[in-house]
């Protein structure tokens, strides 16, 4: 486990080192030094609001699974999880922690289902917005010109997702039944509406980080380039998405008329805002030191 975390840390550091080596450091430094605090505040507030909405989404999913989870508890655990995901390699340690911390005696399965399905709802909404954005951008003359490698990468992602689903089906009825509640949740309009709202706010938060470093992305990029960049953070070989997020931004920003340095600067600003937005977890720890701090430290391991 420790070796895996060290590898992820090394990958994040390595990718960032490569980006710094090929990026215009003067432009990058100037943009970060002159970052607009108002847009940084908007980005941080947006991410913090997303955490609050995700906690509500998690509570609704838990309720559908007959898992008792008051909103205040869900909010506290979600902030803990977000902070852990930012500072511990892997990106899912926080989710494992909140699963364990809300598990009822002898009922780990439902707690795990609630966390996995809640995360899946967010990814589905992001992919829906991305698909809609691509369809619209392709139908508008003079918009973003998409190179073939973008569609190849997206097709590869779809194939991988389908292959994963097939493997889960072949793994037996237990795996299929684990994800069965997802289809029940997807039929509930309030869940879909909340997931789409959260995805839009997520896009806005990254847009705000780009504005903070002096980059104005077109509307087409809001629905296409930004979701692709944020999806890169899901690659597990990183710490808090660092490296992959900046790398994806460096590659994709030129498609929207910006520079690679602007993309890296936006990614760094966004990462800093993510960490700031997770700091309320420390306030929860201070308010409930005996019941929360020891579990937060011990459970994930």
Automatic annotation (TrEMBL):
Keyword vocabulary terms for this entry: Cell membrane, Membrane, Transmembrane, Transmembrane helix
Bilayer disposition of the protein: Multi-pass membrane protein
Subcellular location: Cell membrane
InterPro entries: L-PG_synthase/AglD
Keyword Membrane attributed: yes
Transmembrane feature ranges: 6-25, 37-58, 120-138, 144-163, 192-210, 216-235, 267-287
Signal peptide (from-to): none
A Pfam match: LPG_synthase_TM
Protein name: Flippase-like domain-containing protein
Organism: Roseobacter fucihabitans
């Amino acid at each position: 486990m420790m070796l895996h975390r060290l590898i992820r840390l090394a990958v994040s550091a390595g990718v960032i080192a490569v980006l710094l080596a090929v990026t215009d450091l003067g432009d990058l430094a100037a943009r970060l030094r002159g970052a607009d605090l108002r847009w940084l505040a908007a980005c941080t507030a947006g991410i913090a609001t997303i955490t609050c909405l995700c906690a509500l989404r998690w509570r609704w999913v838990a309720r559908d699974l007959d898992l008792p989870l008051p909103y205040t508890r869900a909010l506290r655990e979600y902030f803990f999880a977000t902070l852990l995901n930012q500072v511990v390699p892997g990106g899912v340690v926080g989710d494992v922690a909140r699963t364990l911390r809300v598990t009822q005696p002898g009922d780990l399965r439902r707690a795990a289902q609630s966390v996995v399905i809640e995360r899946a709802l967010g990814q589905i909404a992001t992919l829906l917005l991305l698909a809609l954005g691509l369809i619209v951008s392709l139908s508008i003359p003079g918009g973003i010109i998409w190179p073939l490698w973008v569609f190849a990468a997206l097709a590869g992602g779809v194939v991988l997702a389908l292959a994963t689903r097939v493997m889960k089906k072949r793994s037996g009825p237990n795996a299929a039944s684990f994800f069965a509640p997802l289809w029940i949740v997807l039929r509930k309009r309030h869940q879909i509406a909340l997931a789409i709202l959260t995805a839009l706010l997520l896009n806005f938060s990254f847009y705000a980080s780009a504005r903070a470093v002096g980059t104005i992305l077109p509307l087409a990029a809001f629905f296409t380039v930004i979701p692709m960049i944020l999806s890169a953070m899901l690659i597990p070989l990183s710490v808090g998405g660092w490296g992959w997020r900046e790398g994806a931004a460096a590659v994709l920003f030129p498609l929207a008329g910006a520079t690679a340095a602007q993309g890296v600067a936006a990614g760094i600003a966004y990462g800093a805002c993510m960490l700031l937005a997770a700091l309320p977890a420390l306030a929860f720890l201070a308010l409930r030191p005996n019941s929360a701090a020891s579990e937060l430290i011990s459970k994930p391991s």
